[in-house]
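Data availability (excerpt). The following record was deposited with the supplementary files.
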Amino acid sequence: MICRIALVLILVALPATAQDIWVLGEVHDNPGHHRVQTEMTLGIAPAALVFEMLTPDQARAALPALRGDGDGQALAEALGWADSGWPDFRFYHPIFAAAPAVPVYGAGVPRATARTAAAGDIAAIFGPDAADFGLTAPLPAAEQSAREAAQMAAHCDALPAEMLPRMVATQRLRDASLARAALHAYRDTGGPVVVITGNGHARRDRGAPALLTHAAPELEIYALGQGEDGTPPDGVFDALRDAPAPERADPCEAFR
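Predicted structure:
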């Protein structure tokens, strides 16, 4: 009964028009955000799932037989989650279980590739379809400055200034990789597709939805941002949700 009630409540909140790709943002360690993603995935009944947290190689290990496992331990082990750096797999397993038989796509950029991107040409690293996702043109100067300022703020104003352009480039590569994986998932399955990612990548104004619109303007895309304690995430979204912030250590301690 509890699951049925949750499903009805979330269905009321979904847009009346059909969406091709649903980009569901989160703060990675917020359990309330993951509950919303799970409930929305149940209501959408997607034809495919895309995860920022998985590389393409990891996604191939997300077999349907493992997703129905009671506590998700077998799936976590198959994915190598313990070494991934992401929060507790218990946050994510219900999302996998909400669409247990559909294909899973990994949009994560491997660490070695991200390091190369920070020092090189992201369009060349991305591949021949880089122009489709806006990677062949530099950002306008004002936009570049705004993104560098956002990176500095996100890292407690502790980064050397020379690192900022490289961090912006890597973020653009991650946005484009997420958009490309979502587009491949849609073209492979016909949709709808659910994308699980951080709020920064879910932004309509500069994240994966913006690049999806650039690559495939005919698609209907829905972007959800999730805030904490009444403070919305930065950026433009189609809808916002809010949840209490969990107790967490001061992230700036690592820079002191």
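Summary of structural features: The two ends are 49 Å apart (CA to CA).
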